[in-house]
Amino acid sequence: MPPNLTGSRGHEPVTSVASWVVPGTRAVTPGWHHGLMNIMLFHSTLGLRPAVLQAADRLRSAGHEVWTPDLFEGRTFDEVEESMEHKEKIGKDELLKRAVLASAPYSERGLVYAGFSLGASIAQTLALGDDRARGLLLLHGTSDIAPDVTAEDLPVQLHVAEPDPFETDDWLSAWYLQMGRTGADVEVYRYAGAGHLYTDPGLPDYDEEAAEATWRVALGFLDTL
Predict the structure, then answer these.
(1) Which residues in the chain belong to E strands, given as ranges?
(2) What is the per-residue pLDDT across 114-165, written as a single tens digit (0 to 9) for each?
(3) Using CA atoms, how far apart are residues 12 and 148, in angstroms rounded to an integer?
(4) How far is CA 12 from CA 76, 164, 224, in A?
(5) Is 85 left (phi over 0), alpha (psi -120 to 50) or beta?
């Protein structure tokens, strides 16, 4: 896959889904946003770490409203192996149920779904099942796309390391094509040499240059929605 795949929105490079809301349109009632977004931001498999809250604060400083559901109910981790065990103990269906319950009260506003790694896969699942979704911002992760899903004109932006052991080139190429077939407007940004969770300052993966570039582009993306 090329280093950067961009959709028609034109920034400069640097599971099955079931509809769980009442079908609507991607147009949101005037007056909800006044140019600012309502963002549902999901944490990674490491839990609701300080980096997630810092990211939410950065988005709020740009004028957006942000929610950060704690799908692990207070548990956070520094090691992937332990966090994966905890995730498996909760179970995929329960995690998705918690995410839906956290998001449903605000879906009428037209949410931007966003997330880190595991949280990105959850955000993708919810966004593709929500006809009112305003956008999808994926950091470090993606998910399967059912063949019958449609997401006409949904703005999607993905930021991922290059290479990334959890998001291989072959997988990302297939994901990009499949997402395009849904009708979504997709952009992909790769960051050479960065670790998987390179936006988290508390992890060895952290790459300050890549993180700052990611947030610069992501904030520009949100400004266009």
Answers:
(1) 4-5, 38-42, 65-67, 111-116, 135-139, 155-162, 185-192
(2) 999 999 999 999 999 999 999 999 999 999 999 999 999 999 999 999 999 9
(3) 31
(4) 35, 22, 14
(5) alpha
How far does Cα 42 stand from its chain's mean position? 7
Tokens of 122: 């959850």
State the amino acid at position 134 in one-letter form: R
Q: At what angle do helices 92-103 and 80-90 cross, to 10 degrees?
A: 80
The per-residue pLDDT for 68 is 98
Report pTM.
0.86
The C-alpha R_g of the chain, in whole angstroms, comes to: 16
Count Cα neighbours of 165 within 13 Å in the Cβ-side half-sphere.
6
Residue 123 to residue 140: CA distance in whole angstroms: 12
Structure confidence by residue, pLDDT tens digits, 28-83:
333 344 459 999 999 999 999 999 999 999 999 999 999 999 999 999 999 999 99
| 90, two tokens | 């909760």
Q: How many of the other CB atoms lie within 10 Å of CB of 53? A: 14
**Which tokens sit at 72?**
């692990």
Torsion of CA 46, 47, 51, 52, to 10 degrees: 130
| 198 close to 209: Cβ distance less than 8 angstroms | no
Lateral strand order in the sheet of 65-67: 4-5, 185-192, 155-162, 135-139, 111-116, 38-42, 65-67
